[in-house]
Amino acid sequence: MFKKVYIEISDICSCKCSFCPSPNQPKKGTMNLELFEYVLEQISPLTKCICLHILGDPLEVVNLKEYINLVAKFDLKIDLVTTGKMLYRHSFDMLLEPPFHQISFSLSAFLDKNSKFSDDYVSNLLAFCNASLTKKSDTFINLRVQSDFLLTNDINLQKLINAFEKHFNINLNSELKRIKEDFAKGIYPKNTKIRLARKILLNLKTSFEWKNSNSKTIQKACYALKDQLGILSDASVVPCCIDYEAQINLGDLKTADLSQILNSQRAINIKKSFAKGIAIEKTCQKCGYITGVS
């Protein structure tokens, strides 16, 4: 069983973040509903939880509700990651009910130097949090910030923190100071979370660069094909949530069953090698991904 399968329903995002590896590249587009249902049929025996992104923002998909209905049909949970830029387009009630297990807002997109968000972004975000508290929703809300913004004393981050403090009636600065000191010392706790309210968390994540390293490292541990699997919006199957370009294209779900793809010699070799702490693919050897960041 995979802990998560990443199904990229669309690689489209209206943000042009400086840290995005592919802001101006041609897009594959949105996976159609028929293909999405087939993908769900293929992966549903292998996992209980899916994400709806690799690149792209799922909330950019206007008819998202139709995709969610299909997920519910297969009794799967959703961990959604979004910038929140298009939050206003969608029903809060839909997002705060099953099959949604967790929604993570990437505040780094809002804080990025290339950011072009509406003035009511923060108020929409807080309204969503209020809706969760009013409904007593079981959906977790993660407000995620990368460590780079904390370490550089980002002014906009401080404004955001001030807004959170006022809204949730909580003092965050002393705790953030301690976390910042840890990050500065190179101490990276796997999950650094501060509870803001019931099922609402501020989540400080170690910053991650998508670009590959110039150096190769063969000795590597990875969750690819063990705990996770990726499926791009064009139905290409990849080992993990990082391979947005399908550099390790294991197969195409439009022409082969998932069982055939996962039992291919290439997939088996990758999985067996990682179990021994060895990366055999050149892409994996150059990957700068830190295990535990998602």
Short characterization:
The chain has 294 residues and is α/β, with parallel strands linked by helices. It has helices at residues 33-43, 64-73, 92-95, 107-111, 121-135, 147-151, 155-168, 173-184, 258-262, 265-275, 282-286, and strands at 4-7, 49-51, 77-82, 100-106, 140-146, 192-197, 200-205, 228-231, 236-238, 251-252. The chain starts with a strand and ends in an 8-residue tail after the last helix.
Q: Mean of residue pLDDT?
A: 91
Q: Can you count the beta strands?
A: 10
Structural class, by secondary structure, is alpha/beta
Q: What is the class of the domain at 4-205 in the CATH system? A: Alpha Beta
Q: Whole-number radius of gyration?
A: 19 Å
Strand order, sheet with most strands: 6-7-5-4-3-2-1-8-9-10
What percent of the residues sit in helical stretches (DSSP H or I)?
25-40%
Number of helices: 11
Which architecture of the domain at 4-205 would the CATH scheme give at its second level? Alpha-Beta Barrel
CATH fold-level assignment of the domain at 4-205: TIM Barrel
Oligomeric grouping of the chains? single chain
H-E order: EHEHEHEHHEHHHEEEEEHHH
The profile of the biggest β sheet is: 10 strands, mixed
Domain 4Fe4S-binding SPASM: 222-287
Protein name: Radical SAM family protein
Cofactor: [4Fe-4S] cluster
Keywords: 4Fe-4S, Iron, Iron-sulfur, Metal-binding
Give a structural overview:
The protein has a domain at 4-205: TIM Barrel, CATH 3.20.20.70. It has a ten-stranded mixed β-sheet. Helix 1 runs parallel beside helix 2 (64-73). It is 33% helix and 16% strand. It is built from eleven helices and ten strands. It has 294 residues and is α/β, with parallel strands linked by helices. The two termini are 18 Å apart. The longest helix is centred in the middle third of the chain and has 15 residues, at 121-135.
